[in-house]
Amino acid sequence: MSTHTIELTTRDGELLRFDCDADQSLLEAAADAHIVLPSQCRQGSCGACYADATRGDYILGEHNPAALPAGAAEKGGILLCRTFPLSDLSVSLPFDHDRILLGEIRRRNADIAAIEPVGENTVRLTLHLAPDDGGSVAEFEPGQFVELEVPGQAIRRAYSLANTGNWEGRLEFLIRLQPGGLFSTWLREQAHAGQTLIVHGPQGAFGLSENGLRPRWFVAGGTGLAPMLSMLRRMAEFQEPHPVRLYFGVNRVEELFCLTELEALKAELPQLQVILCVWKPNQDWQGFCGTPADALAQDLDDLNARPDIYLCGPPALIDAAEAAARSQGVPVEQVFSERFLPA
Ligand SMILES: Cc1cc2nc3c(=O)[nH]c(=O)nc-3n(C[C@H](O)[C@H](O)[C@H](O)COP(=O)(O)OP(=O)(O)OC[C@H]3O[C@@H](n4cnc5c(N)ncnc54)[C@H](O)[C@@H]3O)c2cc1C
Ligand code: FES
């Protein structure tokens, strides 16, 4: 069995090196070397372990094509959980060194505090972490997700946090109830306040990038709003002065949600512009008609802007928004995304 040397370079320029056997995925070999890289499904479905191979040969095993940006696989785009080395490899990671865990993913119990409908087929789930050695503090970076596990039911799914870190141990999620989905059905039919869930995390590399005062434009489809709310709330807490826009899109007007929260955010972050987008609006709709990717493309063109762009939601929306950013000349290093895919 041949063993190869893998070199990882993080976005902030840190170099990490480990050995990987030809039949081991880069993700597994890194974990063996105590380098826990962002991942979720570990089977090529979700895209959470996306990176770029810059040198060397490899096999990219079976995976969901939607887990990679459109056209990325031909240019060295890889999924670390499905990549097996054929030679020494250099890999560029799309996140900073501080998103790599040097230890185990944290596992804690949390009680359901509330499940509230916020829009058609969308609920806000609020959990309270049970105290452990570190107290009940909820520590995470805006943009990260956790996996929620229903004890005894082998259901474990990723959900982005919508609030910010806090001392009370409060975790807030926005969850779209998918028809026939396992976690969705459990949440709709069986879950109730006081029940205990297992929380794995925080995990994930999506989050704010510090690039001076460059404008930040957030583009969210459906519950892709959750990590954007977390990042915007952090900006409001720190009174960050960046020019900032949120493009938030749904299919029909009835599906809009969290409008009160967005109004509250505008009061705390006065430079925030919110552009609500409805793909198939009714006649009374006064806002933008189309997807948030359409609105993004139009504004990038009209304003000749080159902001940092944060994308979250279904893969089709992210592909469309990435294409718009590319065609308007926004450098790829200024585009950050999280794809909501079933594991
Ligand atoms: C990093 C990450 C963060 C995520 N954060 C959120 C979040 O904050 N809020 C949220 O609502 N979801 C989020 N998701 C999606 C979430 O993890 C689940 O995939 C989703 O809730 C469905 O789980 P389920 O068990 O109900 O459905 P499953 O039992 O997994 O799937 C049942 C059926 O529904 C379909 N389906 C599942 N998910 C989708 C989808 N997103 N779009 C269309 N069809 C689908 C499947 O194809 C399948 O046919 C995130 C995913 C990832 C990878
Ligand atoms: S962890 Fe690799 S694609 Fe999901």
Give the ordered list of helices and strands.
Answer: EEHEEEEEEEEEEHEEHEHEEHEHE
- The structure class reads alpha/beta
CATH class of the largest domain: Alpha Beta
- Average per-residue pLDDT, rounded, comes to 93
Proportion of beta-strand residues:
25-35%
Oligomer: single chain
Ligands bound here?
flavin-adenine dinucleotide, FE2/S2 (inorganic) cluster
Gross geometry: globular
Instruction: Compute the number of helices.
Output: 6
The CATH superfamily of the largest domain bears the name: Nucleotide-binding domain of ferredoxin-NADP reductase (FNR) module
Structure description:
- It is a single chain.
- The strands form 4 sheets. A 6-stranded antiparallel beta sheet has the order 11-10-13-8-9-12. It has a 6-stranded parallel beta sheet with strand order 17-16-15-14-18-19, sandwiched between helices. A 5-stranded mixed beta sheet has the order 2-1-7-3-5, with helices on one face.
- It is built from 6 helices and 19 strands.
- 18% of the residues lie in helices and 33% in strands.
- The chain is α/β, with parallel strands linked by helices and 343 residues long.
- A hairpin with a 4-residue loop joins strand 10 (145-150) and strand 11 (155-160).
- The chain has 3 domains: 3-99, Ubiquitin-like (UB roll); 107-203, Translation factors (Elongation Factor Tu (Ef-tu), domain 3, Beta Barrel); 216-339, Rossmann fold (3-Layer(aba) Sandwich).
- The chain binds flavin-adenine dinucleotide (FAD) and FE2/S2 (inorganic) cluster.
- FE2/S2 (inorganic) cluster binds next to loops.
